[in-house]
Amino acid sequence: MPTLSRVPDRQGVQKVGMLTPWLEAFPTTAKPLIEEIDHLLGYKLSTIIAEGPNSTLTATANAQPAIMASSILILRILEKEFGFRPPERVDVTLGHSLGEFAALVAGGYVSFEDSLYLVRKRAEAMAECTRRACAEHGGEYGMVALVTEPDHLLPLVESIHEFLGHNSAGSKSESAQDVPPIQQVLIANVNSKNQVVLSGNIERIRTLLTHVRQFGGHDPRAVRLKSDSPFHSPLMRPAAEIMQRMLEGKSRVPGRENEDIVSFPGVMECVSNVTARPFESKEQLKELWARQCVETVRWWDSIKYLDQEERVRRWIGIGPGKVGRNLVGKEVGMRGDHTVKGGGVWGISEPKEIEEVLRALDETEALSDEEHEELG
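Predicted structure:
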């Protein structure tokens, strides 16, 4: 089977009205699923998505379930309306940050109903972590992307770690455990060869930027992200603990109440944000999925692993945004119509993109088979 990766997107891509085109184009499939989402959540998330206001949709407790549900809705439309069978067409799945929830649903590790419950409870816990930090310590919290030149990224990361008192790459959530929240900052994402995201207290991030510019010789472009919480930072530790407890529980799906909420193995491999490698066991999956709340998303390492070691040549992004797949295209040298023999990077975030993407997958499948045969 030609290797194909599926990439759901992350928080920050939500927008008012993002489900309307799907409801209009595929009402038979979309309407019942949206009604199911509202029923499972116990409130009209669909109304918030359709009508806003944007400030309500952007709130963590609404944004995370909305994005995850939107990704799965698109996948269900592909399955029911176009006969797309993920286990037959896809070898590995991964998702950026919040996208890991949809990736695990697609990979067969957790049901959509259970995942929606998990993402809602985790989002509520994350929002509470932020409220508590603001109430107890003051300040403003969020995330800031830093964009630099590719050959400057590693020195920039070293300069950030030096300022924060860290001596090695990766997650630093443990070393920040005794630091007051207002001082806590972490590299939340390593997204590509020229982009990282900082998470934590905004004033502390500004101080850090002043330091790396004055003393580190760096001048990265800083972009504030659409996030009201500092995800993947030590401030999210209570949310990680709640997530860990929930993952030890049983399924909420009727008829599966005596089964674990997590299944293993899935129907295809899924790459962890924390390790940048596929999950290896049920216990490891539960541990890493919970730790993802506080640890660095190793997106660049994940893409390099699939591109360079697993030789993935075909990538399809499914979800309301294009951030994840754009980062993939930048790393593997393929964007949109720019393809190699048997390869490409495609995205489905609007109904009009489906047929074009499925046609491209069909056309490249035979070429990809030939390439794999040539490689032996």
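Summary: The chain is about 50% helix and 10% strand.
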